[in-house]
UniProtKB/TrEMBL annotation:
One of its GO terms (molecular function) is hydrolase activity. The lineage of its organism: Archaea, Methanobacteriati, Methanobacteriota, Stenosarchaea group, Halobacteria. This is Alpha/beta hydrolase. The keyword Hydrolase applies. Keywords: Hydrolase.
Length: 264
């Protein structure tokens, strides 16, 4: 599997599929496998690049963690691909894509509910502390459930029963420590008043996810100099896997509007 080395020495592994202008898919939770339903929808027309975030999948990890290091990882991937890529990120990967576009040349950005915390929700955010308390008690599954309920479905009374039907469960438990450190960093990471992003941005959201994420994507929309916002009716936070064809259609339309950029 190809790898790049991030500035702090961490090895970031990635897959490559297809041929054409580069499209880098940045996952949120779990690993690069999150994107499996979407890869065939783009690989005929694009070189699809799938990195694993640090500490997940086939990538290495560093002793110190920060959002800046995750952004540096994405930039290292951008600089390794041939051509100027479009970045497509989900959740934390959406934030990673937007932040990377501030420091690296990209042709465009797509972000599904990027994980910025805004307004009253950010002022009272304590998910990291609640997860830490569960981990300190040796309750890894319960710590993971706290995160998933916060970001997936906060409107379900019997969340345990819903999780039992969720195909991905209990795989997120394997990454709970990394998810905790991510949440701690996000709680300290403010949304800027304005983003210095030169590339066009497509923001995606669903009507059924947690309210704080729908508020966040609109705040990001307001802070960007050039962005388009599309909402999918009846879809939650995991829109790219809940509705892959609707997601792919919106992204393909956005990609078609971009001016092709020659390889570097």
């Amino acid at each position: 599997m190809p790898t790049v080395t991030s500035p702090d020495g961490t090895r970031i592994a990635y897959e490559r599929h297809g041929d054409g202008p580069p499209l880098v898919l940045l996952h949120g939770g779990l690993t690069r496998r999150y994107w499996d339903p979407l890869v065939p929808r783009f690989a005929d027309d694009h070189t699809v690049i799938l990195p694993d975030r640090r500490g997940r999948g086939e990538s290495g990890d560093g002793e110190d963690y920060s959002i800046e290091r995750e952004v540096a990882d994405a930039r290292a991937v951008v600089e390794a691909v041939e051509g100027t890529p479009v970045l497509f990120g989900h959740s934390f990967g959406g934030l990673q894509a937007i932040e990377a576009a501030r420091v690296a040349p990209v042709a465009g950005v797509v972000a599904y509910e990027p994980a910025y915390l805004v307004d009253d929700y950010r002022e009272t955010a304590d998910l990291a502390a609640r997860m830490q308390a569960r981990l300190d008690a040796g309750e890894r599954r319960e710590a993971t459930k706290l995160h998933l309920r916060e970001v997936l479905r906060d409107d379900i009374e019997d969340f345990d029963a819903w999780l039992d039907e969720w195909p991905v469960w209990p795989a997120p438990v394997d990454h709970v420590e990394n998810t905790l450190r991510m949440n701690r960093a996000l709680e300290a990471h403010p949304l800027p008043d304005a983003f210095d992003v030169d590339a066009p941005v497509l923001l995606l959201t669903g009507s059924e996810g947690p309210a704080h994420l729908r508020e966040s994507v609109r705040a990001v929309h307001d802070a960007l100099p050039e962005s388009r916002l599309v909402e999918f009716e009846g879809v939650g936070h995991s829109g790219p896997t809940e509705a892959p064809e609707r997601t792919a259609e919106a992204v393909r339309e956005f990609l078609a509007d971009l001016t092709p950029t020659p390889a570097r």
